[in-house]
Amino acid sequence: MPTIRFMPMGIDVPAREGEKTIAQVAARLGIGINQPCGGFGTCGKCRVLVSGASSSLTEQEERMLTPGDIESGYRLACRCPVEDGLTVFIGITPAEGRGRGPGMTRQVRYGGTREPLFTSISFDLDIPSVRDKVSSFSEIAASAMGLSGDAIPIGLMDPLQRIFSGNKPGKAVISNRRLVALEAGDSFKPYGLAIDVGTTSLVLWLVDLEEGSAVDALSDLNPQVRFGADVLTRMSHITKKKDGLFELRDSLLSALNRMIGCIARRNGISPGQICAVTVAGNTCMEHIFAGVDPSSIGKSPFIPPYLAFPRLDAVVAGLEINPLAEVIMIPNISGYVGGDITAGIEASGMTKGSGVTLFVDIGTNSEIVLGNRDFLISCSAAAGPAFEGARISCGMRAAMGAIERVSVVDGWLSQGVIGGTEPAGICGSGIIDLVSEMQRQGLVDPSGKMSKGPFSDIDIHICVDERGMRHLVLAGSEDGSESNRLVFTQKDVREVQLAKGAIATGIQALLEMKGLQVDDLCRVVVGGAFGNFLNPVNAISIGVLPMVPIEKIEFMGNTSIIGAFHALVSREDHAFMEKLPGRVEYLELSTFEDFQARFLANLRLGPVLSRKE
Length: 613
Prior knowledge:
The protein has 613 residues and is α/β, with parallel strands linked by helices.
């Protein structure tokens, strides 16, 4: 079989029988390649740089790739056939870094009173004599650690006997009065992982369990995007294909294990030192991670198999770390409001006071929660993946080369690009800026229709391609002769309208359910992958966020990973999250009065009114 080299990982992989394209081989390895069209060659998002290819371009590649792309050696991973000697260049994207280089520039420390779920202790063992009435090594060790005799797993008996025979002190990691790691000496340092399993992206935080701090981070594309951009298409894949659940779970675990190996090597530790894991994700993603069929969520009455999962050992969960490490999944609230929102509610602190908070997690599902210490009500807005770059012509995640800021300065289109490189696409925060500026400059009207605009002195205008499709050129020449040409089309505007319309309708529905107005909000907390980088004025101007004073808006970024981190280092926060789902009322938006009419009205670009209509 042909062998392919993937760079910059430097791994040589033989293709297996049935694997015909680069994307299929990459999927088996858990290498994230963006395929929101499901690998049918219709979106052009799986563009990769390839050397050593002798195959001819397919019809789809000739249509999707520019002349400059083809000259540079780009191919579509879902179309390019495997052949011996191929080298494919794919990068791993740092999490939270946005141009700062790999990982974290500083440790993230827990700010509350820390009582970790997982503790490490050093101990000495007294070697018994024949006169001592001792029945087993396990009882001696358990007594030294303050545990019961059955708390010593069989898998740790070998290191325990080595500690006895060497007459050395030992170090143990304990969870829930159960031993999960044991080493001779006192140099063993335990780590944990907080994991955010997103529909589009995966994020890991490496956590020093003894210090209670996150020391590094890593993110990558969720390779499941090749099966579809949202949870409905993935559940459909499970339903229609016999081994669909296995395919989805295998691709997810392959990616997570590759990322775990990468972050461990980067920090000079062994994966065996990782003794604890917390996982937060939407309800569907948590079920797939656990290997449980989530397809019941996709049909009325939308009931999931689990809200709260039992704890798993890492070996059962499929994570390549300490096999006895405990894996704790943050509990879900409903079929469409998951553990990521449970974690986000905790991270936001919205239950700590009487002031009403609106929490909006902007992502593929865009869940919304309204409440305070006395009540909590939630809904899922099903906004789609537009704000994560999917279904947008030149959309991409917030990674190196993404346009994250757009403004018009002195008649010129000004762009801020992550990493200061040439633009490779546009991410969620840039998309919101761009649509807001287009509306401000008269290039798109409130209905979303692109037009030439009234300003002749501005250096941006709407073009029309040979198919009659209106578009705005963000980079490259208008005639398409440059390989880095990026355009934002009329269809892209429509995708943004669908996303903001869903979010606005969800906000209005929750407020009406509680008899509140936008003016009653004390805080608006924004979560999601690009929350820290969102321009609030622009988000309000097109109606993504409600029209409140800017000082009421707080951007927290990835609240899912923050809450998962808190659960890992604080017993109190974890207990809070375990009880939280029972306190949250869930509103199924499709059952809300006049939902369809309200949604259609909210497709218009403009601020959400501050008072009830």
